[in-house]
C-alpha cells in the first residue's frame, strides 16, 4: 500500500484493484510481507521497483548498478536481494 494509506492519511477507493484490472494488467505483491521475510521491512519499495523494472527499457544489470551506487554500503546486499525478489516475481 502507498505510505499515505499505511499511515491512515488516505484510503483506497472501494474496489480499486478490480477497477484497474478491468482495463490494465495488474501485478500484485504484498511487498511489506515479502520484505519482512528477507529481513528488512524498509526494502519493500525495492521489491516493487524490481517488479516494475522487468517491464522497463533498462537492463537488470543497469538497475543493480544503480542500487550498488546509490544505497548505503551496509544495505547493498539486502537491497539487491529485494530487487531480485521483485524482478523474479
Task: Give the SSE layout.
Blueprint: H1 3-6, H2 16-21, H3 31-37, H4 44-53, H5 60-70, H6 76-88
Describe this entry's structure for a reader.
The model has no long low-confidence stretch (mean pLDDT 93). The protein has six helices and no strands. By secondary structure, the chain is an all-alpha fold. Helix 3 (31-37) packs across helix 4, helix 4 packs across helix 6 (76-88) and helix 5 (60-70) runs antiparallel to helix 6 (76-88).
Distance between the termini: 17 Å
What is the CA-based Rg, rounded? 14 Å
Number of helices: 6
Strand content: under 5%
- Tally of extended strands? 0
State mean pLDDT (0 to 100 scale).
Answer: 93
Order of helices and strands: HHHHHH
Helix content: 55-70%
Low-pLDDT runs: none
Q: Kindly name the structural category.
A: mainly alpha
Q: Could you describe the largest sheet, including whether it forms a barrel?
A: none
Molecular shape: globular
Compact description:
With 89 residues, this protein is mainly α. It is built from 6 helices and no strands.
Could you name the key traits of this structure?
single chain; 89 residues; mainly alpha; 6 helices; 57% helix; globular
